[in-house]
Amino acid sequence: MAINDFDFVLFGGGGDLAMRKLIPALYMLARSKGGFPPSARIVSVGRHPFSKEEYIAMLDEQAKCHIAPECLSKEAWSAFCDRISYVSVDATDPGTYAALKEDMRSEPGISRVYYLATPPALFSVICQNLKQAGLVTPESRVVLEKPLGRDLASARQINAEVGKVFEEKQIFRIDHYLGKEAVQNLLALRFGNILFEPLWRREWISDVQITIAEELGVGNRMGYYETSGALRDMLQNHLLQLLCIVAMEPPVDSTPDAVRDEKLKVLRALRRFTPNTLVQNVVRGQYRSGHVHGEPVPAYRREPDANPQSRTETFVAVKAEIDTWRWSGVPFFLRTGKRMADSLAEIVVRFKSIPHSIFAQPISSFQPNSLVIRLQPDEGLSLSLMAKMPGDGMRLRPADLGLDFRETFKKPRMEAYERLLMDVLRNQLTLFMRSDELEAAWEWVEPILEFWDQEDNEPVFYSAGSWGPGAASALIGRDGLQWREEALPEM
Ligand SMILES: NC(=O)C1=CN([C@@H]2O[C@H](COP(=O)(O)OP(=O)(O)OC[C@H]3O[C@@H](n4cnc5c(N)ncnc54)[C@H](OP(=O)(O)O)[C@@H]3O)[C@@H](O)[C@H]2O)C=CC1
Ligand SMILES: O=C1O[C@H](COP(=O)(O)O)[C@@H](O)[C@H](O)[C@H]1O
What's the gap between Cα 291 and its chain centre? Predict the structure, then answer.
């Protein structure tokens, strides 16, 4: 699908996200097959009064290094930079928007995309000021970065304020996990094959585990992270979106509202926490010192700029339950953490055990089938089956049937931000969150936040470089289960 001519206005154009992800993704799209329309432009915005030359020099230094070397060429980079201008605007000062207006094109038919890579406290004021400056046209779109609020009330407020300026069909609430190739492949697996659908239910599935583990810490984002924590940073958005894709009913088609209606039903069917289940089914952890891949790491509280008494969680694990005919009784275990033993993101769907062994082997030696959807570092699927070992006798052991997307398709994959930015430019909303989805996700996590706010409620500690606190193993252990790495045979 062709991209209409556009002015892409990047608020926060000098920030960390712009440098590491957005500018590299825009470069990749500009040089891709089809590319950008010849006169498409990128207008970067921030308070700092950079000249164009200074801003481009900053991109040379801070953004270029995040582009794969084999994709960089002097000509392509220079052609890309020719599209870019920089305008100094204080988002909170309506008077400064005149300079932005002057830099933008006013001919009809040019799409305007406003990407707000700024603190969310600025979202409402930016939208109001854009409107007041006459910069919002029916072809305009706004992209909102996460976190969209810090609780239900603030999320509702942002939705309401942004909604006064942009219609819902013009608002793109980004969750970059939905742009990951493997997540879209999960949709393909579920709704492009007949094989799994009959099994994708409580009768055959014992439990689902969704893990996003990071070896990295909070880097230079301590200021943000300290007020956010793993629940707001990862669980409320990325993990819940993955849960929705696994658990939703087949949508009638892949149009935005058909998909988003089904995700919303899942969020609304999540069982609400009670004081009792909050204690049993939620683990809040913070890392203390340890080693990640042999390198010493200080405790979170001793990281640069950290609050030495911080109660911010760097790890969260929950047992979620979905009260529907399809999923009743199937626990969904979600966990994420910083400074963990490995960097990986995966979804593990574990099937039930066979009812009876016809072989001499005891039933306890049969590992239940499981489907592992790997999101990163590599992307693929593996289905673990019991198979006969070669040779005499009849001895079965687990074996994997695998699909490595990179090997199979031998095509370079698109980074999540590339995919999502392309969808914004093409006006495709399917992979973006609707306001009611966002609010339903906040509604579900809100009791956890309230519980944690109580004074005597402290995180439990885990060593940096481990798989999280022992309480997370106990959480899943209460259902007689183990996290995947705990169940793997020792090598
Ligand atoms: N960094 C990341 O990995 C991720 C970030 N996000 C989200 O993206 C957003 C941006 O994050 P990040 O890039 O890390 O933040 P940074 O602090 O690095 O950048 C914020 C940018 O906002 C601009 N800004 C701040 N106040 C104003 C203002 N009043 N008027 C105009 N511009 C302003 C700053 O420019 P100047 O100082 O020149 O005004 C700066 O370029 C946040 O909401 C964050 O949560 C989401 C996912 C990942
Ligand atoms: O949104 C965020 O995601 C990253 C993890 O993303 P990934 O694509 O690298 O898995 C996380 O590090 C960051 O804290 C969070 O804001």
Answer: 26
